[in-house]
């Protein structure tokens, strides 16, 4: 299989899109250190996937969790071939109502966590010519209302990814971004809080549905992590049913 004997870190890997990615990487022969704040979801994951998964309970905004995840990948699986920075927590409010704690939540779990995990993983990825997949958002690219803290952090992640793609290319490390659209617990909560915005989002999807984390988004992440994408770096791939046009 295409990811045989390869080991990956997936942040937020215990539910939503992260769970879909964890399952998909394992189905392609890989092993996963799933880092998540949700211990119950982590226990369910371990029961389902056994020794192909190592669950690390931790908050991605803590830089020590990033170094611990890399250490665990080496201790349990003996290598690190890829990093998926998927976790991101945020609150939706009009930008004039956003408080310091709201900006802090989005930037610490989104931008800073992505940066810290990339820094922690760099040396190991340089030894395996590994790959990083970070997460963007169509809501950020289109400037969706109530998403200022989230959108700013997401576009910061894309800028960081492009620079890292250039700086780390001599070491053989590729860095790409996936911008997904998929039904997850996070989207369910948002759809209940913002039903009009949710209905408008669905209406704008050319393929006329929200994606499935495992079947529609995870294969794109697995592709970018695999050698099939060996000539791609610094790119944003839209796994969003055709919603966002980047031209
Ligand atoms: N679902 C979509 O349609 C959509 C659209 C655009 C972008 N995205 C992006 O895709 C990624 C995954 O989205 P999702 O919808 O699956 O999210 P989700 O909120 O449903 O799941 C996120 C996972 O991350 C974990 N998590 C949250 N905060 C954490 C923290 N501080 N430390 C460790 N783990 C933490 C949660 O426990 C959960 O398992 C995110 O980066 C999100 O911004 C999603």
What does this 3D model show about the protein?
By secondary structure, the protein is an alpha/beta fold. The chain has one domain (7-229): Rossmann fold (3-Layer(aba) Sandwich), CATH 3.40.50. Helices cover 50% and strands 15% of the residues. The protein has 9 helices and 7 strands. The chain has helices at 16-27, 39-49, 63-77, 100-128, 138-142, 148-168, 185-193, 195-203, 213-225; strands at 7-11, 31-36, 53-57, 82-85, 131-135, 174-180, 236-239. The chain has a 7-stranded parallel sheet with strand order 3-2-1-4-5-6-7, with helices on both faces. Strand 2 (31-36), helix 2 (39-49) and strand 3 (53-57) form a beta-alpha-beta unit. Helix 4 runs parallel beside helix 6. Nicotinamide-adenine-dinucleotide is lined by residues 12, 14-18, 35-38, 41, 59-61, 86-89, 109, 135, 137, 180-182, 184-187.
| Oligomeric state of the chains in view | single chain
Query: Do you know the CATH topology?
Result: Rossmann fold
| Whole-angstrom Rg | 17 Å
Helix content: 40-55%
Distance between the termini: 35 Å
Topology, please?
Layout: E1 7-11, H1 16-27, E2 31-36, H2 39-49, E3 53-57, H3 63-77, E4 82-85, H4 100-128, E5 131-135, H5 138-142, H6 148-168, E6 174-180, H7 185-193, H8 195-203, H9 213-225, E7 236-239
Parallel strand pairs: 1-2, 1-4, 2-3, 4-5, 5-6, 6-7
Bound molecules: nicotinamide-adenine-dinucleotide (NAD).
Nicotinamide-adenine-dinucleotide is lined by residues 12, 14-18, 35-38, 41, 59-61, 86-89, 109, 135, 137, 180-182, 184-187.
GO molecular function: oxidoreductase activity
Protein name: NAD(P)-dependent dehydrogenase (Short-subunit alcohol dehydrogenase family)
Organism: Brevibacterium marinum
């Amino acid at each position: 299989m295409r990811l045989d004997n390869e080991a990956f870190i997936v942040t937020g890997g215990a539910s939503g899109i992260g769970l879909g990615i964890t399952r998909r990487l394992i189905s392609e022969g890989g092993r996963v250190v799933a880092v998540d704040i949700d211990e119950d979801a982590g226990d369910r994951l371990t029961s389902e996937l056994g020794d192909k998964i190592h669950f690390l309970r931790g908050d991605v905004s803590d830089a020590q969790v990033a170094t611990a995840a890399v250490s665990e990948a080496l201790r349990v699986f003996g290598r690190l071939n890829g990093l998926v920075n998927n976790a991101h927590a945020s609150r939706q409010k009009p930008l004039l109502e956003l408080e310091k704690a709201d900006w802090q939540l989005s930037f610490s779990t989104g931008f800073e966590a992505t940066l810290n995990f990339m820094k922690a993983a760099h040396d190991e990825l340089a030894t395996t010519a590994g790959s990083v997949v970070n997460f963007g958002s169509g809501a950020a690219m289109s400037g969706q209302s109530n998403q200022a803290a989230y959108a700013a952090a997401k576009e910061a992640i894309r800028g960081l990814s492009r620079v890292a793609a250039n700086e780390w290319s001599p070491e053989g490390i590729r860095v790409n971004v996936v911008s997904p659209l998929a039904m997850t617990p996070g989207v369910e909560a948002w759809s209940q809080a913002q039903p009009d915005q949710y209905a408008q989002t669905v209406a704008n999807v050319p393929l006329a549905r929200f994606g499935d984390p495992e079947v529609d988004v995870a294969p794109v992440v697995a592709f970018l992590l695999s050698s099939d994408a060996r000539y791609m770096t610094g790119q944003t791939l839209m796994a969003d049913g055709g919603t966002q046009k980047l031209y």
